[in-house]
Amino acid sequence: MTDAIMQKLNELGGNLEKVNQKLVEHDGNFGKINQKFIEHDAKFKEHDERFDKIDKKLADHEERLDLIARTVVDHTERLERMEETMATKNDIGKLSNSLDKIVGLMEKKDQELTLTVHATTKLEERVEKLEVDVSKMKPALGLS
Questions:
Q1: Three-state SS for 41?
Q2: Does 54 have pLDDT greater than 80?
Q3: If pLDDT is split at 50, 70 and 90, which confidence band does 90 have?
Q4: What one-character DSSP code corresponds to residue 86?
Q5: I want to staple 143 with a disulfide (CB 3.0 to 4.6 A). Which of 13, 23, 91, 138 is the partner?
């Protein structure tokens, strides 16, 4: 029986040797896998740094977009105020037509005034002539 036990122990020892050899192989494989993890960790670190830079750029762009949005809102409000108070082409056309009418009336009045002044001058000259004639007639009529 001791031979059978020894044989069994030898078989188990051989099996243990195979298991040990497999474990050594697995340790080598785990070493390779661990090295790959280390390489991937380095890559992840690079990616994290790149993402950090991208996040910073995005934050800067968000600030710029906020500034642009506030500027657009401000300009929109200013344009709305300007639209409320500015004259349209139609308004300016009406104003221009009214000014043209006023200028026409003023020109007409100026012409009338020129004619009136001329007529008044003629009348004054005639009155002076008539006064001279009347002053000549008064002594002859005995009115002086």
A1: helix
A2: yes
A3: very high
A4: S
A5: 138
Q: Are 95 and 87 in contact (CB under 8 A)?
A: yes
The reply to whether 52 falls in a domain is: no
Q: Is residue 104 part of a domain?
A: yes
Assign 123 a pLDDT band (cuts: 50, 70, 90). Answer: very high
45 belongs to a structural domain: no
- 118 with 98, same domain: the answer is yes
The reply to whether the predicted model has a pTM over 0.85 is no
Residues 6+ apart with CB under 8 A from 144: 138
Range of the domain at 10: 1-39
Q: What φ, ψ does residue 86 adopt, rounded to 5°?
A: -85, 155
**Exposed, middle or buried by CB within 10 Å (0-12, 13-18, 19+), for 113?**
exposed
If you average pLDDT over residues 98-117, what whole number do you get? 95
For residues 105 and 139, membership in a common domain is answered with yes
For residue 17, give both structure tokens. Answer: 């040797």
Contact call for residues 54 and 62 (beta carbons, < 8 A): no
